[in-house]
Fold each of these.
Amino acid sequence: MEYTHVTHTFEPVFDTESEILILGSFPSVKSRENRFYYGHPQNRFWKVTAAVCGCDVPVGIEEKKRFLLQNKIAVWDVIASCDIIGSSDSSIRNVTGNDMNVILEKAPVRCIFTNGDKAYRLFLKYCMDQKRRETPYPEVCRLPSTSPANAAWSLERLTETWRAEIGHFLTRR
């Protein structure tokens, strides 16, 4: 396979009530085809977040948006554009980061969670620029990836870890 230069084409999901921001690295091929986050059927994001929030797993884009907003969760990706081979995070290069101020200036985000180590490292490298912000970023927490490529983590273990981190934050409301 060859590298393709790809630009993120769909908007973040958030509103003026969003208190948690969950950042992925860049949409998979399937997510880009669906034009929405975590579109690969094997990605466990929707199962994990629904379990953490004590909700049924949302189905369809509109239901997923409602689920996120009802639970005060914003979702976006770190990368605005990059060169990538398929959906492989390990192949990402020539990155342009998204401007987190798009969300952080409009929503009372109190904690940023990255979905995986790659998203965390990319966030630190391309988005954590204090000079672009008048106020410091909220707390940033790295969570294990819900990607099917993270096969070392079972659904139960992912859910338990996400619940411990996000659940702890939700109890501080």
Amino acid sequence: MSEKRKKPIRTGSGDYSAKMFVLDALSFTVGSAAIALSVNMFTAPNQIAPGGATGLATVINYLSGFPIGVTILLLNLPLFAVAWKVFGGKFLLRTAVMTVMSSVFIDVAASFITPYSGDKLLAALFGGVLSGVGYGLAFVRGATSGGTDIISVLIKRRYPHIPVGTLVMILDMVIVVLSGFVYKNIESMLYAVIVFFVSGRVVNYLTYGAGNGKMILAVSNNGAEIAEKVVSETRRGVTVIPVQGAYTGESKKMLVSVVRPAEVHKIYSIIRRCDRDAFVIIARADEILGLGFKRDDTV
């Protein structure tokens, strides 16, 4: 009897399996709940607007009483329209789903979550951790937080020499400064900085592991053996580049592999096991895009 195989769902960006659907749904649901908890319990009640569309919506809510979730959607709609036209649906689909879900969660949860009214520093810290968990889960599944993320990507398309992270930080700081004027309290600005700093660290942790990614460069006479063992024992890819020493003129192989921090020791052990005299460089990789790491659907 032949075994039945589950057919993947066909999408514009390739095969979309049932497993991927479940992972997306679970990540977006947990992430949206974390963001809703952050906003309704810690940041909004304590007059903290930590940048992004959520921060701007928090300020608007303070001034007008308009629901934060609905405001986030209204702020993102024109951005979605522009991004759809420029980048297409592949870039936008997960972001739109995550934005709608988190907005609904925020407004629904506002009716029953009890705001935290204790130490504002604790509110900023826990608000940052929860929002970081929410956005981190979204980023892992290929979505963005919308708002300033989309604006930054659009600006980068015009000015490609400016890093997206720098653009996001500038836009977020504009919103933070605006919130300080609205709340008439400089402490609100300072607590907001704490929120998006903590949130950013949590996002990086969920996306890359305990720190940024690592790039390993190893020059060895046993390049083929090392590459084979790294691929078979760690399932990480390796690029082999022929190199020549300028002083000795000797031809060797340089291996290049990008890994998560937790994998560095294992790969370093493999290199030393195969060649005790290998020349090894371990460098930090601030952002890694591609198979096995973060997906980039913006181009």
Amino acid sequence: MTQPMLEVRDLKMHFPIGGSMLDRLRISGGLRFENPVVHAVNGVSFAIQPGEVMALVGESGCGKSTVAKTIARIYEPTAGEIRIEGQDIATLGFTDLLPIRAKMQMIFQDPYASLNPRQKVRDIVAEPLLEQVKGAERREVPARIAALLAKVGLNAEHAGRYPHQFSGGQRQRIGIARALSVTPGLIIADEPVSALDVSIQAQILNLMMDLRDEFGLAYLFISHDLSVVQHIADRVGVMYLGFMVENAPRDVLFSRPRHPYTRALLSAAPSIKAHRDREEITLTGEVPSALTLPSGCCFRTRCPFAWDRCTAERPKLQDVGEGQTVACHLTDEPERDKP
């Protein structure tokens, strides 16, 4: 097994909620002050091999985008390790992170908001590159920009235009060119096609896969669209309320999901094909608040298979074979797996 391009170990990201002293004052059980936090990510672990596409899926608010931004060090992690080619970057300062930035880049969801409207395309693409090259190498930057634009399907004449002069798909191609400018090994793609028309989505996805094959890129791909994930991913991690509840190779997860939440997601996914034999699991209730996590299993308040152990004990990810790990007590007692 080669060294992972990215390895995340027990990553946590909690956001403290500010407020006045009166807001934080509690009298029940004695006079005290509380410092509430949003438990956005709660001990997530996974690894991505060079050239592999790892997708994170789950409902809105499950923490998948927070994982991406924490790995990119947009957020300062509360705890855990983030290893890029074996080096833990979770506690590195700004200066020490600069050479690491060349190893990982990010593609954002909104291709317009992520581009500086005051910069021309050539400056947008060159900005991360100029942070990495010095001296005589800077003379090569214009040629590299032209080559990058051609690589993502844009013309040299586009270099002198501003972002508002492009369509959404073209703007996302500019974002991809910017990410490629420093020849990274890992690209973090946070819902990169969700803001685009379906026909344009296919073009961007195919471009990303072509670039993966050409440059050996690894992707952390964030999405809520299971059809997109099934097309692009090698491995899929399923998140719920900041926890990783299942992690498996794509084909294994889509054909033999083990966690009740994964099965509910797949049963709810829209399809133009008739699935008379597809399992149907209807979830009731709302996702619990990330301010106060439920005891035991994070999914127990909505799970149709929950039982006493789910309230008392939080399940850990267990290897169930075929490269699949599941955080569910049903893996120990499968006879309970019925409505």
Amino acid sequence: MRHWIIVITCCAIAPSAWCTSWFATRVISYAPGSGAAPGHRVAASALGAPARMTGSTAEPETVTPFQPAWMPDQVVSIGAGGSLVLELGATATDDPGHRFGIDLIVYGNAFFSDMAWPTGVPGFLASEGGLVDLSEDGVNWMNVPGATIEGGLPTMGWSDAGAYDTAPGSVESDFLRAVNPAVNESAVAGMAYTELLTQYDGGAGGVGIDLAAAGLASARFIRLRHAAGSFGSPEVDAVAVIPPTPSPYDLDGSGTVDFGDIAFLLLSMGDAGGPMDVDGSGVVDFGDVAIVLLEMGG
């Protein structure tokens, strides 16, 4: 009971990453634009994590590179001249420690054609483009050169899913794990499905974005839009922020050095050595607390 009282108190005083969402949490504005799919104009569908399953209860589909999310409560459509502005649940930061330098991932509902149906051999990528802009304050925007809403790799909901499964897999893909950007449509064309699975390397695909490409050190807002006069209507499922590179002082693994880590230290006071002994003195004491407090202020 003591443990939970401390954690709850810390979250109330200074919300930690335990209380953080790594996905978009608020719709700022939405303009459907021309040609947006009539049944997919609920902007809140882009909040939270990407879908792992789609379809109806009677006819479920596992989200794979050949079966994208398509339900009205899972994706929102953006027509020509339209835009969707979202606030992220956590600030995305340009972090060279991130895998492949990717700081943010946009999940749409692009999918591969199947060159050898139903074996799942990727052919062309069915994608409707779209543009990506980022902002630190929601007022001043920077475009991400080359980034599209429905580029990259189609979403993979489960790391062990078959191409056309109708039931959940047993291993969830990691929505916060970037996939090598070199693994693209041309790189996987004609690849056997089992090999395609390995290319995701535990991640879920999507469009990886390096904030440095937009000239930004951080971003709290994202604008997804389709230029006036463009063909089609890209759909957005979710936007994920890659958590900061772990600090050795992030004792609770929350992604942030905060009062949650102090709570862990207080619970370990007097213990001999171990990961909580951050100053290497041989015992967990107030010297370790002092170091973590200094790191919080840095």
